[in-house]
Amino acid sequence: MRVLGIDLGTGSTKAAVVDDRGRVAGRGAAPHRVEHPVPGAAEIRPDAWLVSVAAAVGDALDQAGGAPVDAVGLSGQMHGVVCADAAGSPLRPALLWPDVRATAASARYADLPPAVRRTLGNPPVPGMFGPLLTLATADDPTLRRRTAWALTPKDWLRLALTDAPATEPSDASATLLWDVPADTWSPAVLELLDIPAGWLPPLTASSSVAGTLSGDGADLLGLPTGTPVAAGAADTAAALHGSRPGVGGTQLSVGTGGQIVVPLSDPTLADLPVTHRYRTATASGWYAMAAIHNAGLALEWVRDVLHAGWDEVHSALDVVAPGADGVTFHAYLTGERTPVLDPHARAAWQGLALRHDRATLLRAALEGVAFALRDGMQALLDDGIAIGTVRLVGGGTDDPRWRALLATALDRPLLVQRLRDASVLGAARLAAEALGGDVATEDDATDVVRPDPTTSAALMSAWHRWQRRRPP
Fold this sequence. Notes:
This protein is of the alpha+beta class. It has 16 helices and 22 strands. The strands form seven sheets. Strands 16-17-15-14-20-21-22 form a seven-stranded mixed β-sheet. Strands 3-2-1-5-13 form a five-stranded mixed β-sheet, sandwiched between helices.
């Protein structure tokens, strides 16, 4: 069996052809650019996704030598919203998770009775599906009239490929429209936000066949019409499904955002949650997550502003001592989620003096992202979530110096997985499962990166300074 996994990420699409032994026959990746037309916005025209999907899949199939593919599985960035008409055509640019304009909509959740509010299992965040959908449609009667489907990015892509609307629990549970104990849509929240239930697509299992490639979908991917397409999963759930850390394990992913994820056998709910509870890609199962908006997103901004290549960024860890000579960086370029929960928080370099240079700013930026991840991990611990062995995944942590900084800043050893693109592998595994098969996972643990005892004292001092200087 050979299957195709596609991960529709925030800034790029990745694809891989994988066989049932877990061997990758071909890989591809292609970028797409998020637009910021007004302050606080994060949008993209969904047609741009189709361009990057076609390019990434084309490269993966070329590398695989044109071998047949038995099924397709999907993964995608969480929380975004596509408003589509009955034919699946987008009616406006998609709104994405870094968008912070839906503060009024997220504030409306405070009007829910406490018992209903508790069933959400998650803090209201402007960049999540429910508030974003409200932002898009509340003051646009024409859009409301024409909207037939409100879809997450991955679900819109599947609709474009198959003409079959659907969603699945891992994305649905991350919409802020989901009743966690009931494991279904929340009528109370839909009523509060004036969201018609008919906009939400039918629910199916992540590993089910949600449709088959239409003529247009087959042309886009270069595969036969009728190829089965699995429902797939949200990217974090897909990454868990790809790496299989097991209940009690911890997965750290550093990409555009950062996620610290702990699988759970059942959700634990709080009256005023700071961390998140979402469904996995399995038939049952949950995970707790600390979500950091500004990880690779912030580092890419720093690179653009300073015109620095990645080699220069990571080399700053060699030439500037831990603590960045008193300079701190808070990476709140788009506000922040865990544990700040403030879309209005803003970024800052602090402690600058005439003696400081580019390398100092770059070192402070890396430390600032690492400290934001530690902040999120501490929120999970404060929730009573045990942090087990931390497995490091994601394409944003290839440099060994950056890995060493993360281990020291988190004060925990990190088990680095050889596995590339865990979300793509998870999507491929769901495709295989939709046909009754599986994709094997080899023991892919390689290095264990441990905290550096020679720098930990200086870095812990910088961590405490970072906490004291947190912008209001």
